[in-house]
Every structure is written in structure tokens, then in C-alpha cells.
Amino acid sequence: MVGWVLLPRLLVFLLLTKTFGQAQRMNQDALLMQYIERRIMLLEDRLEKCNQDMNKYVREFRDFRKEITVRLGGLNIYKTEFKNEVDILGSRIERIEKDIDYLEAQQPTQTCVEVDDKLIEEQIQQAEEKRKAKLRMASDCDLLLAGIKSLKIVKKAGDAQGSWIKDPARDFQKIYFLSGTSGNVLTEFGGIKSFTERAGGQVAKKVVLPFAWQGTGHVAYNGFLYFHRNGTLNQIIKFDIRNGTVKDRMLLQGAGHVPVYQLSPYTFIDMAVDEQGLWAIHAEPDDGGGTIVVTKIDHGSLAVEHTWDTSCSSKGAEAAFMICGTLYVVYNTHHGSRSHVQCLYDVTDIVTSTDFPVLYFPKRYGKHSMIHYNPREHQLYAWDDGYQTIYKLITKKKLESQPAFQ
Q: Cβ of 63: how many Cβ atoms within 10 Å?
């Protein structure tokens, strides 16, 4: 009887024990799942951070690769420039060696003798006279500026300072436009008509130069643009306009220390072209600001043929141009007035400033940033406070008597 009484209690105990065990196991499973979830979340956080670090490293590596690519490109440019410089130097050394060999062959070594200073001075003077005589004989032009006939305003374009030029030897109908005192974009027009048309800019050709120019003293001659390279003291670049490459370069000794014209302080070397070829106009420093110097340059080899120290001052000067081996310096005032030519220098000494009257430009008050002579057209191309102008000239023979001018 007692057994039947204890049996239900035993069954209840067993049932409670089983239920409690299941609850305990479920609690343990829940804790285990929570632990696993926390570990998975930690792993996900670490994977996310690893992914972020990986993306960061990839971006840094790409930036580093871009920087290295840019620097390698710059090194290739420097390598090309250095190679060109070495090639030019080698060709000039060969040219100098040939000149030395030629001079040695023409002038054999003489025995050393004592010579009187006066005799040396006479010999130098005779040699100089012979040189001038050769220049007179070799000169194929004896034009002298006698007057500035008229003014034609072609257009107003670009900055207040700039340069517009034509090539008298090749593609002489084209116009080359260089706005500003520094830049690297040359604008080429097919002719005066396309230059003056309002829509001319749409058909104009843009040529990007490898170097920026300095000042406004550029010229185009025989298919090449000659300009003073910006950022250098006296380097002149010879640029092939058709194929867009640098053909040659030179250093013009003695130039670049002071502006060639006091009223155009942005121009240190003013290139010029006349009937006798390519010239460079620059200045030597002195107490008054600068004395103008003229240098004849072989346009093919960029070799200096001869240099003349003139008597013309850069003080009060705004521009200059060459006609038949004669330098004409244009003067003005700081505030802008009537430009006039009051100093010339003839490399053959046929005429002097004392024989030459002051010539005034047609009345237009302003300041020229450039004046260049075109020997094919016998006209002056000028840039006057942003206006592109043309001056027609009156010329005569150098040995003729001077007419009277007002």
C-alpha cells in the first residue's frame, strides 16, 4: 500500500528532474549560442577593419604609383632636354674646332717680337676699317629711313602688351599673334583677312610652345620662331613652327642683365629681322640704365657674327627696329606721348645720328610694346596699347642728301 502511495511522488520527482535538466541544458545552449554570436561579431569587426585597411593601402599605393609616373615623365623630359643640350654643345665644339683649325691654317705662328703700342693701335684700326669696308661691300641694301608716312590700325586684341609678326622669308602671308609678355601659346592666322574677321579665332591655329617666352621681342624668320626663353638670363630658342619642335638654342653673352628699353621693362632681348638677316638688340648696364648693343646672328647656326656697342641709350626708349643694318631707337615718355626716332646706329658707319633728323610717328598718343620691321613689305608692325598697327615708311639711299623734315 505504501508503495502505491510513493509511486506518484517518485514519478513527479523524476518528471521534475527531467524538466529541470532540460531547462538547464537549454540555458547552457543559449549561453553557448550567445558566446558564438559574440565571437562571430568580433570576427566580423576585425574583417571590416581589415577591409578598410586594405582599401586604404590600395588608395595609397595608387597615389604613390601616380606620383612615380609623373616624376618619371618629368625625368624623361629632363633627359630629352639634357640630351639636346649635349648634342648642341657637341656640334658647337666641333664648329669651334673647325674654326680654330681654319684660323691656324690661315695665320701661321709668328715669332715673338716687341711691338710699339702705337703700331698695335694702328694695326687694330686698319683691321677695323677693313672689316667695315667688307661690310659695306657685302651689304646688298643701303636704304635709310626718311619718314613715317601713315598709320593703319588693324585691330584691337589681346593684352596691353604683346607682339604680332609676319615671316618675310616663308609663309609670308601668315600672321603670328603672341599676346602678353609671357606665355606659351602662339596663334597662327592664315592672313590679314582672317586676322581681322570677328570669327577669325575659330579658324586660327593654336601652337603650344615647349617653353614660355619673355617680353615681346619675338620674330618669325624662314619658318622658325626666335624668342627669349622665360626664366633664363639670355637663352634664345629657335622653334620650328611647322613641326612644333625646338631646332636649336643659344646663349647670347652679355645680354639679359637689364631691360633693353627703359619703357618696356619686360623685354630683355629684342630680336629683329631686316634685309641682312637676323639680329638681337639688348643692353649693357651702366649708370644711366643701359647702352643699347646690336648683335648680328647667323639664323642657320645661331652663331654670333659680330657685336656693336652703339651710342644709343635705353633711357626713355620703348622700342627699336633694324633696316638695312641700321638700328633705329624709338623714344617716348613714361605717361605715353608721341613716339619719335631720335637715335640711330649704322653698323657700316655711312650715316650717324648727327646726320639724321628726329622723325615723329603719326599722331597717336600711347606707348609701343613692340615695333618690328618687315623687309618684304617695307612696313613697321607695332603693338600700341593693345592696338595692332601698321606704319608705312618713306626711305631713301643712305648716301643721298638729307631732306628737310618737320
A: 10
Q: Which of 276, 168, 141 is nearest to 222 (CA)?
A: 168
Q: Which three cell numbers stand for residue 272?
A: 629683329
Q: CA 302 to CA 315: how far, in whole Å?
A: 29
Tell me the Cα Rg of the chain: 40
**Contacts of residue 280, Cβ cutoff 8 Å, sequence gap at least 6:** 236, 252, 255, 269, 270, 271, 272, 294, 295, 297
Q: Which residues contact 236 (CB under 8 A, 6 or more apart)?
A: 226, 227, 228, 229, 249, 250, 251, 252, 269, 271, 280, 302
Confirm if 372 and 165 have CB atoms less than 8 A apart.
Answer: yes
What is the enclosing helix (H) or strand (E) of 149? strand 143-156
Q: pLDDT tens-digit profile of 356-406?
A: 889 999 977 788 999 999 999 999 999 999 999 999 999 998 876 444 433
pLDDT 10s digits, 47-56: 888 888 888 8
How is residue 134 written as a grid cell?
667688307
